[in-house]
């Protein structure tokens, strides 16, 4: 995948509009979005989550999911005003279904494709499913095409600002990444608390 280093597109919000925009954490499955949710929560932004999906061996710190997000593609967006001033996890495939009436700050977590695929295979094994039911080369090609399409969509949305952060950068050198996340979200986060929840031991599928 191209562009593995984080980049900031468009300008960040001001303090006065922090309560008006919705912070969205996104990325491919198994890319580190749950870790990012936990970091932002530690920084002082309340997560929108129903906690219906319990932590497990694949995500020991919790999934930080909100079930109604999965219905975005079916038109269920009535809950979005509740997300203003909060952070919610939205998988990359559902980003394009976010309605245009809100202001979004998207933190898109990137991860090496080989690590994503390895993590997915391990999750399938843990669930007792066949890890070979998917072809890694084909999945990588489909994921990379999908990410390019999502990036293009994000660039063309006037109500969306996007920060790209790479998973391995956060784990290997968290402070610069946290500083950019803080600036992107208005500069009011508790960066020390964010750094304290970064757990390199969870980096179990390294490239």
Describe this protein's structure.
The chain is an alpha/beta fold and 207 residues long. It has one domain: Rossmann fold (3-Layer(aba) Sandwich). The chain has helices spanning 33-43, 113-126, 136-155, 167-172, 174-184, 191-196, and strands at 7-9, 22-27, 87-89, 104-110, 160-166. The protein is globular.
The largest β sheet comes out as: 5 strands, mixed
Structural class comes to alpha/beta
Head-to-tail CA distance between termini: 13 Å
The assigned CATH architecture is 3-Layer(aba) Sandwich
Per DSSP, what share of the residues sits in E-state strands of 2 or more residues? Answer: 5-15%
Give the radius of gyration: 16 Å
Order of helices and strands: EEHEEHHEHHH
The total count of helices amounts to 6
User: What is the averaged pLDDT score?
Assistant: 82
- CATH level 4 superfamily: P-loop containing nucleotide triphosphate hydrolases
Strand order of the largest sheet: 1-5-4-2-3
- How many DSSP-defined strands? 5
Structurally, how many domains make up the residues?
1
- Shape verdict: globular
Q: Ranges with pLDDT <50 over ≥5 residues?
A: 1-16
The fold-level CATH name is Rossmann fold
The CATH top-level class label:
Alpha Beta
Helix content: 25-40%
């Amino acid at each position: 995948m191209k562009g593995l280093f984080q980049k900031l597109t468009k300008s960040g919000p001001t303090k006065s509009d922090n309560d008006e925009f919705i912070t969205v954490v996104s990325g491919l499955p198994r890319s580190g979005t749950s870790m990012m949710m936990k970091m932002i929560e530690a920084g002082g932004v309340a997560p929108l989550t129903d906690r219906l999906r319990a932590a497990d061996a694949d995500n020991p710190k919790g999934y930080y999911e909100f079930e109604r997000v999965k219905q975005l593609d079916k038109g269920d967006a009535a809950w979005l005003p509740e997300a203003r001033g909060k952070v919610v996890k939205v998988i990359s495939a559902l980003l394009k279904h976010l309605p245009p009436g809100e202001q979004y700050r998207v933190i898109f977590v990137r991860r090496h494709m080989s690590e994503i695929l390895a993590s997915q295979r391990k999750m399938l094994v843990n669930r007792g499913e066949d890890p070979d039911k998917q072809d890694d080369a084909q999945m990588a090609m489909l994921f990379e095409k999908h990410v390019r399409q999502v990036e293009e969509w994000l660039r063309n949305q006037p109500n969306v600002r996007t920060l790209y952060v790479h998973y391995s950068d956060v784990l290997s050198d968290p402070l610069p990444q946290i500083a950019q996340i803080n600036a992107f979200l208005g500069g009011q986060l508790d960066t020390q608390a964010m750094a304290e929840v970064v757990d390199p031991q969870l980096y179990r599928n390294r490239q």
